[in-house]
Structure formats: structure tokens, C-alpha cells
Fold these 2 entries.
Entry 1:
Amino acid sequence: MTTRLFTTLIGLLLTLALMTALAFGPVPVSLRELGIWSLHWSPMTLPELPRHIDIVLGDIRLPRVLMGLMIGASLAMAGAAIQGLFRNPLADPGLIGVSSGAALAALAVIVLGNTVLAGFMATFGFLALPFAAFLGALLVTWVIYSIARMTPGGSQVTTLILAGVAITAFSGAVSGLLTYLADDAELRSFTFWSMGSLASVTWRDLAIAAPWMGVSLIGFPLMAGALNVMLMGESVADHLGIDPNRIRRRVFVLTALAVGAGVSVAGMIGFVGLVVPHLVRLALGPDHRALIPLSGLVGAALLVWADILARLLVAPAELPIGIITALLGGPFFLYLLMRQTTEGIQHD
Amino acid sequence: MTLAKATTRLLLTSLISAAGLASQASADRLVSIDGSLTEIIYALGAEADLVGVDTTSIYPEAATNLPDVGYMRALSAEGILSLAPDRVITTADAGPADALSQLQAAGIKIDILDNTPSLAGLISKIQSTAAVLGRREAGDDLAAQVEDEVEQAQRAIAEQLGSLNVMFVMDGGSRGFQVAGRDTLADGVLNVAGFTNVFEAIQGYKPLTPEAAINANPDVILMFHSQKNLEELATNPALSLTRAVQNGRLYNVDDLDLLSFGPRLGTALQGLLERMTDHT
């Protein structure tokens, strides 16, 4: 498939997703109302919309669509960059500990919020959970990276992966300890958080998370050339005047910002960072100059479609969006793998 | 004569306006997010106003046929808005806070009622619910009736059982036993019944260890959420050495609905009394 055709297709899919996401939800909104609403910034005199329609479109659907776009795009780009950096299609942003750190911090706030962390809760109020998740993501990533840096000379990749595995296991154990102390309501809150949701995204959340994610949305495509060089191996990169450690550090920081900010607002949304870059690579090949931006577009489209399903399938209740991305992503990923294998055999 | 006529007219007018007010107040489309509130709304005869409930609203059974807006701590503003309610009635457990403020912004009245697990808390919850629904009189009647039933049960328990040391245990399946400390509905029930919670010193539900159970040595153990039968439970090392199990005073109380803290609290306590006096 050519890059141009692929881009056009994804562009259409994304546009359609945006329109559908604004037009459909549990509250019925007519096309006329949607039209009036979307023109309300213009100088035209338009009929007044019912207050609840105005709120549903402007304060509920629009911020969650925008947040879905940004989270989907940054998760997928982070996945593409991490897979390129480790030269491993099975890598995902979770590999550098960012998700386990965020989960641990979130669980700590949920379980210890009334006791040990009461002061923290009082200081940050309703922002305590997102802020803690963000801090946890950054902190664990920083610890893993610092350990890797202590390796004397040579490649740090193995140390990175092993440190990542060890720290993830450790924070998993601390999470287990907190789970053991948690009561039923706290466990349920954490379970819901860990499956992700865009249900209560507000303009305030968007304003808090967007700057961090914006940095990574701009930063990842700029890394494309360097990641292409890294694909040829670290010594080649070295000879071409690119410091592999500096590239690694940048990808780390960008990933921690993107995933940390996303997780803090919407909880854990799995599979996007793993499946999307894989899909784009199968369609277009490994050139990061196309792979990274197009992964962003596909990730954005996927998450907005998943969010539409999340709010419609069991209305008036909502499904956690992480369930939907995993339900769609899992089988699709398997299908891609199987197709790849059979094609490989045919070529032989 | 004219005075009597005027008085009659005045009376009639005020009656009519009162009736008008009442019907206006009860015209609210209502979403109830808490099982005990849903129960109170049914007991007040206001169920016709209900257009939606949450997953914890499982009694009476008719409530489960209403649209379900999901788990009370993970609400979605748009889902609730789609039921076009005028009013959402809930307790402090509901969330997330953002969903509630979005509802408020959309012009929906939100009443967050106190949910303290005590008799006084239940009475005030009934009265506040009735006030919100514009059915104060029915609320006072229901409150008086519930208070009466609960006090009757309290007297019967005090006479027949006295003050006992009780341990309230939730069987968490693979997570093991969880014992109820203070600030739980289970602790509230024990206090209303006039029992002493032997784990009052801890807060919330905590894992129960055999040694802590032996140390607390309760007279009675109440179990809930258990898939196992009592014989099997009695052999569990965390329970088997307590005075309660040795005297055969281990009871499964799932069917009694002790923890709903709604209008059936008196009935639940009577049920508990019967359960506990059956064997002795």
C-alpha cells in the first residue's frame, strides 16, 4: 500500500470518527442541533439550543473526543518509537515501567488517601489521583533509566530491559500489598481506573494534560530520522555521529510525558501502543518518518472509535475503554501475526 | 355565615394549592444512585418518578427493570443525561466528582444525602429523601414506622441475647477472610443491634488472621458473601478456635440483607435475632 493511499484512508476514518463521536451518544442530538452548535461561534443569529444539548456537546463530548485524539496519538507514537528504539516489535511503552509506576501511584492514592496520604489529598484535592499517577510514571521511568546509566560502557539496552522487568515486578508486588489492604469499594475503584475511561474528561483535564502530550506529539516525529539510523545498529549510529544514549534519553522522556499524562487523565488504556505501530509497519514498512506520524493518526482514530463504542454499548452506563481497545486489539493482532506467518511460508 | 364561607373557601384554596404543589414536586424525573435510597423511594410510593437507578439498586425487584446507569463510583454524565432527569438523588459515595458537576452544569438538581450507618442516620436519610420528593408527611410516617420496628428489634435482642461480642466477616473467596472494623456498614449494624464489634479498633475491612481471631475471641461470628457452608467454614483455622465456633454460634447472614441500611432494617434485625436464637 502506498503511503499516500494509507494516509488518505486513515484521514477519512479519523474524520468520520470525529463526526460520529460528536453526533452520537446516549443523549440523542439531531443533525440540526449539531449544525447550530458547531456554528455558534459565528456571527450568524441562530436559534437557542436547549441547555443540556449545549452541555453534552460542548462540555462532555468535545473534551473527551479531543482527549481521545491526543491520548490515542501519543500512545501509538510512543509505541512506535519504543519499538524502534529496542528494535523489537513486541515492545510497548509499558516496557520502560511507565504504566506500572502510574498504576502503583494511583492505587496508593485510592487506598491510602484517607490515612497516610491524607495531607497529599488535602493539598491536591480532586487532582490528587491524576497528579500522583503522573509523578509515579515519571519517577519509575527515571529510576529504570538511572540504573541503566550506571552500566559501565557498551550498550545499555539489556540493562534497561532487565531493570524494567525488575522494577515492574517490584511495583507489581507493592501494588499487590496495597490491594491486600484495600476494601471492596477501593478495589472496585482501582479496577475501573485500571481499565481506563474517558467518561469524565473535562476541559480542565484537557488543559492539564495537553501541554505534556503536545510536547511528545511534536517531539516523536522529530526523532524519526535518528530512530531510522538506530535501526542499523548502535555502532553504525555512533559512526554517523548520533549518540545512541542521547536518542534513548529523549525517547524515554517523551514516552514518560505522553503515557504519564494520558494515564493520569484516563487511566490505563492497553494495546494501542503495541498494535497500532505494528499495523502501520506491516502496511508501510519500518521507515520512522512515515511510521511515527501515521501511527499517531491510526491511534487517534482507534481510540475515538473505541470511545464511541464505550459510551453506546451499555448506555446509560459506560464500558471502560481499555476493555474495548483490548477486545478489538487482541484478535486483530493475532490475525496480523497469522497472516504474516502464512505469507512467510508462501514466500519460502 | 360569611365568615364560615370565607374560611371554607380559604381552606379549599389552600388545599388545592397544596395538592398542586405536591403534584408539581412529584413530577420530577428522578435518578436514584444508591440501593437504600431506591428502597426508600419505593417505600414512599414515589417509584413512578424513577427513570433510572444504579447497579446497587437491587430491591425491590421492580427496580432492576429500570435503566441502569452503572456503578455508583464510575458514573457517566451523558448516560444519566440521556434519561432526561430533573433530579439525581445519591449519597456521598457517588462519583467521580466531575460527572456530578457536569450534571449540575446541565441544570440537573443533585441531592447528596448523608449515609451514616446508624438508626439516626437512617431516619434522617428517610426524612431527607421524603423532603426532596415533596412527600414529607409520608416520610415522617415511614421514619416513625422504621424507628418503631428497629427499636422493637433492639428490645427483643437486648432481652434474649444481651450484649454480645461479635465479629462480622466477609468471605473474600480467594482473597481470604476480611473482617469489618469501624466505619463500615457491618459495624453500623452491630451497633444498632447493641452488640460490640470486637474489631472496632481497626478501620474498614482488613484481612483476618487466625491469631487475631483467637485473640479477639468473639461470642458470635456473622459471615457474609460466602460460597461455603457453615461446616466447612467452621474448620477454617481463622475461625475454628474461637468461642463462637466452639459454641456453634457461627451464622451465615447473606439472606438477611443486613447491610442495605434501608427501610427493612428492623426486619433484618428481627431475622438476625431469629437466626441467632434458633440453635440456642
Entry 2:
Amino acid sequence: MKKNQERLSDRAWFRLDNAALIFPGQNTEQWSNIIRISVDLTEPIEPALLQQAVKDILPRFPTMDVQLKNGFFWYYFEKNDNEPLISPDRNNPCVRIKYHENNRFLFRVFYYRSRIALEAFHALTDGYGCAVFLNTLAAQYLRLQGKTIGCGGMVLNLAEPPKKEELEDSFVKNATPGATLPRGTHKVYHKIGEKLPAHTTHIITGTMPVDRVKERAAARGATVTEYFTAVLLRIYIDFQKQESRRQKEVVIQVPVNGRKAFGSQTLRNMSVCYTVGIDPNLGEYTFEELVRQTSLWLRYVNNAKTLGAMFNSNVQLQTSPMLRAIPLAVKNLAVNLSFHFTAEKTNTALFTNLGVIQIPEEMKPFVKNYIFMPSPGRLNGGRLGAVSFDNTLTICFADMYRQTDVEREFFRFLIRDGIPVKIISNFT
Amino acid sequence: MSYCVNCGVELDDSAKTCALCGTPVLNPNKPAAGETPYPEKIVIPQNKLQRYRATVATLVMLLPILVCIPINYFITPGLYWSVYVASTLILLWIFFVAPFLLRRTLPHTPYISLTLDGVITAAYIYVMYHYNSSGTWFYRIALPMVAAFVVLGYILIFFCQKNKNASLIRKAAFALAMVALYAAATEFIFLISMPNLIADCVALTVFFTTAVLAIFLRFASENKQFRAWVSRKFFL
């Protein structure tokens, strides 16, 4: 029956990277840890070609062509001999992943109208890795349609074998030995709200022109990420003021891609999170002050030294002989507990900016835009994913709550600031 | 393209309301049309773990039965202690494991579950009766009481399925009425089958209490003032 299955001794296997280690331990019904990125092409998708394209590109991505297995002490990835399946898209993306479903693949490919969407478990890769996989997939799909498309940017060359640098665990490689940084553990503000039924998600995506956003941000001396983070801070501070008398800190988590700082080419996880916090008890902040605080803070921390220390505080947990010898089940319990008590409770919202999508010139006419969506959390904190392509920037807001106050205030703020926004949503 | 008059954002061509504030889109020149940006189909993943757990529980419960019967047969012939082990485990299995295996595979699942529960309870009592006791109390008291329980259970399930949108108070009233009827049935069964027994009418006390409460809740469930008061006083 299993004709093309290799013998166990020949089958490739590798460890999870340092950031991936925590995700299987806290994979629950409500907390899916799935990253979704979708691309809108100009013509409706032909499923048969897309299926073929997935099959074609998979050998180039050994880190995606895997199944998750339990070892005694750690999880590990093993090459998956099954074929990945594609399916029509759904209204509730980013539902939890179960390792035995979907032919044991940890990513799913969906299609809807002219959209190709990729959902990947965070243990496989981060936003950048997903973008590379999706773009390579879209390029191969367009090639199968008869278009000539080269490689470059986020489209990998399928003729090459996978490079060694693409498979490395950059956290372990670039961690600074001995350096550590404290983690944030105190509880911060979360908005109150009414939860949607299980497995349903509220997505609101805003599309806006990049040049206008850049202009508005530059007018305050900030980058796009800093500007949006400050807008979020402003909104959450204002909401907290209406909701309660006791003012907690408002903290926005900003994941940053560590590849630039270390010149890494890895297609596995290589991002860590910075946090930007404002304590409203210190007094009234104007928006200009918030932008200034945010941009000063992010520029102050964002360097290779801090990153190396942050990597090391995580890598230490992986390399400590005491912790390594704990059986997997106990580790899972510990990860689960620590996520229950810290994790989301230490940040109000998350803003992740994937940056600019780079694809070959000849592919650009066939692509309209991208949407990047981090998986919603359990608590009522917006999870925002931003991605820009050409002159469009999309910001995708995902949560599991019925209320849209934060989204409304966020996009209204941008409109008032002179940025035209177009909204699409899965709730109509 | 339409704009939300309230938020000022541009909306999708298919949008009938603004996704941010819910304001309806009224654009006489361009009525809402076209395909929605996300498909409408919601896919709720199945929970396969439940069935898996139920299967494991079944195997775990089967093991003592399979071990006890041969031991009983070969080592202590003549005594029937393994019957108690087996019947207790089967009773527990039907009560707590079978519902998870039955789910989604058969129509009228609640009725089937209840019937199975009734049958196994009667069978369990019969085992006790057969090995431990004499007389005819099983046929005259136990069997009618189990039957009455199952029939009232059917009525309650039927009511709840028929009136899915009924308020919780209304359902509670109906459930209490069933309890009252069950108490009455118990009293009746004892009266007929054991007329000589001096009963202290415990069931009658239950009957009157629950009946009064059921009638009160039945009428209170339709009283808007009362419901407003309840929802204000006891909100969680």
C-alpha cells in the first residue's frame, strides 16, 4: 500500500527550532497558533493546477514537508510521505490544527475565487517563511497556467536543491552566550467583550495606500510600524479610561524579523517579540507623545545585541541539561501552564508587520494584493497583521469577539488622519 | 463603491452593512451585489478525541470483566461474584461512555440513550434481585418505577426538542412538573403493589413541593415583570 514510503532509517528528521518548541505544547482548541497569508490573483483559481503546484514546490521546502512526531523528551519533525490536499476556503480561517488531520501536514492551502491562502502552524515557520512558501506556490501556479515567471525576492528557484542556510535554527546559531533579558510578566489591560462561538473568528481587513501612510508617519518622524503601534496604544488607552477607574499598563507586542540583523536566510522561525508599553497612570499622553515614545523605544531596543540576548534567554531553556531530561508530557504541561498565566496576559494587542512583499517584476501584473493574518488569541486583544505590496498596505484585524469597537476606532483614526481605508470582512 | 456614512471607510461592493459599525449601506446608484470577500461556509472541526477517549474507556472497562469471569469460573465455582463486577461495569459504560460513541451516528440519540439507560438499570436491579432476594418486588415496584422514569424522560426530551427557543425558566418548570409526576407515580405504584405497607408519604411531599414550584415557574415564565426582575437580580 505504501509504495513510495522510505524506510525509517532513510527518512529525514530534524529538531524543532527554538521558537517552535513552545507551540505544540500550547496547541488547544482556542489557541491555534496558525499564521495565514493569502494572495489575490487577477483570475479565478483552477484547483487542479494549484494542487499540482503544491506538489511541485514541496521538495524545495523540506521544512514544510513534515509531520510532527512525539519523542520521549522532545517533539520532532519527520518527512511526510503523504500528499498535501487543497480545499475551498472557509469563513472561519485559522481553526486549530490537529496533527493527524490533513494527511498529517501542518499547513493547509485554500482557494476561493481568485485567492490562494496558506495557513501554517507557527512551529513550522514564521510570517516571512509563510510568505516565501506562498509566493513560490503562486509563481509555480502561474507557470503551470503558461506564464513565464522567473525567480527572485520571495520566489525561490525550484531547480536548486534546498540550501543548508534555509534549514538552520538561527536562534541557536545567533544567540549571545551568557546574555539574558528579563521577560515581561505583569498583567496588562485587556478589553472586555463577548466571545463568539467556538472556532469562529471575526476578521476585518483594511486596505490603504502605502504612500499616504508613509507620509503621515513621516510627518511625525516615525516608521509605518511605529505609527500603527502608536495608534493602537492611543485607542486602548482611551478605551481603558472609559471602562474602569483602575488603570493598567497598555502593552503592544511587536514581533520583529531577526533575519536582517544577522543576515540569516532561514525558512524556519526567526522572529522575536518586542513590547511597547505605556502606563496611563503617569499622565495624559497626546498622540504625538505616543508616537515619539514608541519610535524611540523601538529604535533603542531594535539591534543585534538585544536580539542576541533575547534569543539566548530562550535557547538557555532548550540547552539546560536539567530541563532537557524532563519527559515531553511534563514539558507540555509546564508550557501550557506558563501560557495560561503569562503569554497573552502580558500584552494588550499584537501588531506584526510583514513588510514589503518582493516578487519578480513579471509576476506583478498577475497579483492584486496580500492579506496577512496572525491567529486570534483567547483574550480580547486585537491581533493585527500588516503586509504591503506595490502601493497597497493591508491591515488584518482578527479576534474571537463580537465587538468591533477597537477596529472601528482604529480605522476611523486613520481616516481622520487623512488615510483612505477600504474595509472587507467575513461578518456581513 | 460605497462609503459608510458613519465611519467614512470605503466598503466592499457586496457589503450590505458596514463591518465596523453595522450601519446599513444605502446607495441607490449601486445596490449591494457581487461575491463576498470571504466564503459563507463555516467549517467547524470535529472533535475526534472524544470518540477516541470513549474507545479507550471501553477497553479499560472490558478488561476487568474478561479477567474476572474466568477467575470466578475456575477458582470459585458455585459463587457468582463476577456477575456483580460485570453488571456494574456494563451499567457504568452505558451511563457514561455510550453517549459519546452514539453521538452523531444515529437519529433520535437522546431517546436511544434514555432507553438504553432504562433497560440497563432494570437489568442491574434484576441481577441484585435474582441473586440476593426473594418475593416479587422487582416486577411490582422496580420495573414500573424504571418504566415511569423512562416515559417521563421521553416527554421531557420531546418538550425540550420541540421548544428549543423556550426560556430556561419554562424548561425548568416543565422538568419540575415531570419530577412531580414521577413522585406521584411512585406513590401510586406503592399504593397498588404494597397496600399493607405503612408508607410515610415521602413522595407526596415531593409531589406537592415540585408541583407548586412548577406551576409558579410556568406562569412566572410568561410574566415580563418577573423575568425582568430575575434577570436583574441574578445576573452573573
